[in-house]
Amino acid sequence: MSQVRSTTSDESERTSAARLREWVLDRLHLAPETAAELLQRVDEVVATQRQLVEESKHDAIRALAEGFAAKMERLQRQLTEKDVTVSNIARYFEEVVADLTDKSHRDPKTKLLNFDWFMERVESFLAVEQRVRWCGLGVVDINSFKWYNDTLGHAIGDRIIEGVARILADQIRSQDFLAVERQAEVEGRDLHARFGGDEFCFLIPDLPGCHQAVEIAGRFKRAVESYAWSREDRRLASRPVKVDVGVVCLRLGPVAERRGVARKLATELIHRADKLMYDAKGLKSEHVHHANVRVTSGQLVDIDARQSAAS
After folding, report:
1. Going by DSSP bridges, is the β-strand pair 134-142/243-251 parallel, antiparallel, or unpaired?
2. I want to staple 30 with a disulfide (CB 3.0 to 4.6 A). Which of 35, 100, 214, 275 is the partner?
3. ∠ CA(219), CA(165), CA(189), 5° rounding?
4. b/e per residue, 139-170, with b = 16+ CB within 10 A?
5. Does residue 138 register a pLDDT over 70?
6. Is the pLDDT of residue 263 over 60?
7. pLDDT, greater one: 78 or 282
8. Are 57 and 65 within 8 A, CB to CB?
9. Does residue 98 surpass a pLDDT of 70?
10. Which are the contacts of 27, defined by CB distance < 8 A and separation ≥ 6?
11. HSE-up of 178 (CA within 13 Å, CB side)?
12. For the chain, what percent of residues have pLDDT higher than 90?
């Protein structure tokens, strides 16, 4: 189409130039030399104007191209900014979801795991853990908590629960033994949870022997009972907080013995630890009550002290 338009324009210009030449020769009656010079000057003016028109066209096209490039660059910048915004929004919502998920798995007062999620983690651990080592599952109860709550008030009761939870998370850990054994810092995978009310539970998933679980639980018990509770409330100076602890030490054995009965084993372990804790409470024991077990044919079987030491 543009080629046709250009051809038509050239033909029109040639026709106009020929007609102008005829008009000059017919009407002005100039000498041939003068007429030729006049026509030459006209041709020069027309050529100059044509060049100016072409340059104007090129300038216009260049301006349009530059404007288009600038618009494209601006659009690209806007799209990049939007991509960054969308990415930031997506990251924000991912963090919100992760935070909400974590909060849904934790007790709001102590920030420890809630009991249901704790049991799911214990079940998962028993179903997949392949190292033939020991683990310890324990239950903790605050001694005479009802007296603190009723006599000193719920606010002090809450502070006692929060304090015991802090000490539990700080003292119940297996990496002390793992680091010594492996000569390296090992990230602990210990689990702590609020069992309900004034009770807590914990799992120490990787230990070299059963006595280490009892040692860790005993360290926790001593830490609670030696804590300066009077800093929480001066009335606690005359009746410092104590805890009763029961621990079941499990010799893991081959994972094939546990995989199909992991949920049942988790439930039995927590029940045994709970009974040991109540035994300690009933006897007003100064020590951690514990038992050692292994899995045989899908059942928890007691191990006597001599077998535990031999393991």
Report:
1. antiparallel
2. 35
3. 70
4. bbbbbebeebbeebeeebbebbbebbbebbbe
5. yes
6. yes
7. 282
8. no
9. no
10. none
11. 16
12. 43
Please report, in angstroms and rounded to a whole number, the separation of the first and last CA atoms in the chain. 96
The structure tokens listed for 240 are 């410092």
Q: What is the pLDDT of residue 92?
A: 47
**In contact, 224 and 164? CB cutoff 8 Å:** yes
The residues, any chain, with a CB within 8 Å of residue 17's CB and separated by 6 or more, are 43, 46
Which residue type sits at 302? D
Residue 73, amino acid? E
Nearest-angstrom CA–CA distance, 2 and 221 = 95
Average pLDDT across the chain, whole number? 80
Three-class DSSP category at 200: strand
The token pair that represents 10 in the structure block: 């050239």
Residue with tokens 């849904």: 104
Judged against a pLDDT cut of 80, whether residue 82 lies above it is answered with no
C-alpha 295/C-alpha 226 separation (Å) is: 37
Q: Parallel, antiparallel, or unpaired for β 289-296 and 113-114?
A: unpaired
Q: How many CB atoms lie within 10 A of CB 80?
A: 10
Share of the chain above pLDDT 70, in %: 76
